[in-house]
Design goal:
The chain is built from 24 helices and 27 strands. The longest helix has 29 residues. The chain starts with a helix and ends with a strand. It is of the alpha/beta class. β22 and β23 form a beta hairpin. It comes from Pseudoalteromonas luteoviolacea S4054. One of its GO terms (molecular function) is adenylate cyclase activity. Keywords: Membrane, Transmembrane, Transmembrane helix. InterPro entries: A/G_cyclase, Adenylyl/Guanylyl_Cyclase_3/4, CHASE2, Nucleotide_cyclase.
Length: 741
């Protein structure tokens, strides 16, 4: 082959590579248009690549986890209670059990669109006009036995979200829609949000008493896989939120959700939503990619019948977000997802909620990515068009493998580390197609021309590498350091009743007026705030910086917090807020402390049995009628503080007895009256421990006469009487076992 023939073949390969490059650029641009048929084919392959990348990355992802529990209307629940839907009386009992367990939010992936028949009204209808007196009695008692009314009264006991469904048929208009929660500078009717003509909502009495309502519609792709979730739906010119979004709004105490729009052509598209002050990016239609935690049943599942019967671990439900739904096969609430083809729909909502609260978990495709793909296609395609013809078959194969491996690695890395959903099919398709076609064309060249061709092109500067291997940064260790520390838990008593008496805005102001001075006090006493959970404050001492005499500082902090709460009462009353009290528990011991969590969201926190004991002591303050309780480990390291011994207890879940104390005052501030009372209490306490029941009863009775408002004296009197009737025996260690937190 002469030089002219060689260049003729090269020009053919270069032209072919250029055509292939621009073909894939066109295909990628078509995929951005929902109406393009060829774009749908690319989207199908893109979806398959998305699924593979998502499933393979599950073991590598590091993420934060919300306390989400799924109450499952499973096969066993249906066997014991009967077919679904159940009576609203049963649902009310389920709701009551969840509220009693201390859940934060309850979201129902269930519709209550039809009123339940009232038995009294059924009997009255059956009797007709034959017995007016009986009919009048039945009409009188009807409201008392109405299941819908009974269920509705349980809904506002905690933040509850009911489900609703939107339909495309405009003649389906069932139930009462909630009031809109969205705020937007652009009217929802002018945004490309999915539009539905009909709806199936909840009966009026339930809707009026529910703090929130969200739709349960899914948004499968063209191949039937659920990869994305709609956050908003348009109906009758108004926008309505998804079940997960409404649950996130209530969980984060956000009053409204703002739709953030951006210019797009002659109109606008959706840029994201603002939940509180956090902007959550979405696609142009208000959708987010679902951040699957794992395959089906990656969240804790509890059978509905166990909840109804009270057979639950309250630790699991305390401050948790609960989704009530079904995984039963017969109820058709199973979805096809990248992580499983029989995936419970209720768990889809749970994944979306976790992503909304932790937006860094949401896979995203920013606007610049499509432009970056086009630039990469041009650069990669034209470079390969130049380079591939210069290589032999083996060289082409190795280059294609190298480019493909680099891009797959980059795409996988960007997904795991930055949660970037980088399109893959167009780039991989370009690489494979160019290698195959150009390799076939190059295969016709004879081996003897290789040196000649190479000598021609040696005069040209060789092209740069398309991509380079990315080095994965070192990951910070998640292991905590063990250290002797002091932990403090403070909780507002009767907060549920207080929160029910205030709307969301006033409740936020109420908590802010409490948290601000309390936080300042903790900082003044060298404490570290761990977290705020609802009305609870958790703090610890001796980390990250070492703090000398941290038990005494923590106790002094707790005493100052109680004084601050007393000072706040007058200010709260002036603003029309209800008075409140707090309970504080402290413990000192070995704890694991460190930067816990994922690479995207971390928390510097403490873990361990000593931490749990501090939380239990806070829960016991109400039982004993005291403001602060400290463990004996903390008490022993506070020589400058005067304490009153309260009890020797075994808290729930622990077999080791711990003596607990109430701090009274600093030694240099204690009064004579306080010392006199404390000495009397100490003698009575010693009589109690020595099982001198009658003498102890007499001593505690005198203390009641001296301080009738102290609950501890009354409790110990009652306990002494019980001990007299049922002596504990010679091996009694003086402890009292608590059965609840």
């Amino acid at each position: 082959m002469n030089l002219a023939k060689h260049f003729k073949l090269y020009r053919l390969q270069w032209a072919t590579g250029s055509v292939i490059t621009f073909f894939f650029i066109l295909l990628h641009m078509l995929a951005l248009s929902p109406a393009a048929p060829y774009g749908q084919v690319l989207k199908r392959f893109e979806g398959l690549a998305y699924d593979v990348r998502l499933e393979e990355s599950l073991l590598w992802q590091q993420r934060s986890f919300l306390p989400i529990v799924i109450v499952d209307i499973d096969e066993q629940s249906l066997i014991e209670i009967g077919r679904f839907p159940w009576s609203r009386h049963v649902m009310g009992k389920l709701q009551d059990q969840l509220v009693a367990a201390g859940v934060s939010v309850v979201a129902y992936d269930v519709l209550f669109s039809e009123p339940e028949l009232n038995p009294a009204m059924q009997v009255a209808l059956h009797l007709g006009s034959t017995d007016p007196q009986t009919n009048e009695i039945l009409r009188t008692i009807a409201p008392d036995i109405d299941a819908d009314i009974a269920f509705s009264k349980t809904l506002d006991a905690t933040d509850t979200v009911l489900g609703m469904l939107f339909e495309h048929q405009q003649d389906i208009l069932v139930g009462k829609l909630p009031d809109p929660i969205f705020a937007s500078e652009i009217s929802p009717e002018n945004l490309p949000i999915p539009d539905f003509a009909g709806h199936v909502a909840n009966v009026k009495v339930l809707q009026q008493n529910s703090p929130g309502t969200g739709f349960i519609n899914s948004a499968p792709d063209g191949d039937g896989f659920v990869r994305y979730s709609m956050l908003m739906i348009k109906h009758d010119k108004e926008a309505y939120p998804a079940l997960a979004l409404e649950a996130a709004r209530l969980y984060t105490l956000a009053d409204t959700v703002e739709i953030v729009a951006k210019p797009f052509g002659d109109g606008h598209s959706v840029q994201g939503i603002k939940l509180g002050t956090t902007l959550i990016p979405t696609d142009d239609y208000g959708r987010v990619a679902i951040p699957f935690r794992g395959p089906a049943f990656s969240f804790p599942y509890i059978s509905a019948i166990d909840v109804i019967n009270g057979n639950i671990d309250k630790n699991l439900f305390d401050q948790a977000i609960v989704f009530v739904g079904t995984s039963a096969v017969g109820h058709a609430d199973l979805r096809t997802t990248p992580v499983g083809v029989q995936y419970p729909g209720v768990e889809v909502h749970a994944n979306v909620l976790e992503g909304l609260v932790f937006p860094e978990l949401l896979p995203s495709r920013p606007d610049w990515i499509d432009g970056a793909v086009v630039v990469l296609l041009v650069t990669l395609g034209l470079t390969m068009s130049v380079v591939l013809p210069l290589l032999g078959v083996l060289g082409m194969t190795l280059l294609a493998l190298f480019v493909t491996s680099c891009f797959i690695f980059f795409s996988f890395y960007a997904w795991v580390v930055w949660r970037l959903d980088f399109p893959q099919v167009a780039i991989l398709g370009l690489t494979i197609t160019q290698t195959t076609i150009l390799g076939s064309l190059g295969f016709v060249r004879e081996h003897k021309e290789r040196v000649q061709i190479k000598s021609i092109f040696d005069q040209y500067v060789p092209p740069a590498h398309i991509a380079s291997m990315l080095e994965q940064p070192d990951q910070a260790s998640m292991e905590g350091e063990k250290r002797v520390m002091t932990v403090l838990f403070a909780d507002i008593r009767e907060f549920t009743s207080i929160s029910e008496s205030l709307d969301a805005g006033r409740l936020k102001a109420y908590l802010n007026q409490y948290f601000s001075p309390i936080t300042k006090i903790i900082f003044e006493y060298q404490g570290t705030i761990d977290k705020y959970v609802g009305d609870m404050v958790m703090a610890f001492w001796n980390a990250p910086l070492l703090v000398n005499e941290h038990p005494e500082l923590a106790v002094k902090c707790a005493m100052q917090m109680q004084r601050q709460v007393e000072d706040l009462q007058a200010q709260m009353l002036e603003q029309g807020f209800p008075p409140f009290a707090i309970g504080i528990g402290l413990n000192t011991g070995d704890m694991n402390v460190g930067d816990m969590g994922s690479e995207y969201r971390r928390a510097y926190t403490v873990l361990g049995d000593a931490v749990n004991l501090g939380s239990r002591l806070e829960g016991l303050t109400k039982f004993y009628g005291v403001g602060v309780l400290v463990s004996e480990m903390t008490y022993e390291q506070c020589p400058d503080i005067v304490f009153r011994p309260i009890d020797k207890v075994k808290v729930k879940g622990k077999n080791l007895a711990v003596t607990i104390f109430e701090p009274i005052a600093l030694k240099n501030e204690v009064t004579e009256a306080q010392l006199e009372e404390l000495n009397a209490h100490k003698k009575a306490w010693e009589l109690y421990l020595s099982q001198s029941w009658q003498e102890a009863l007499s001593a505690f009775t005198k203390l009641i006469e001296l301080q009738p408002q102290r609950k501890i004296y009354q409790l110990l009197c009652e306990r002494v009487r019980e001990m007299q009737s049922h002596p504990p025996g010679e091996n009694w260690d003086g402890s009292y076992t608590h059965k609840s937190k």
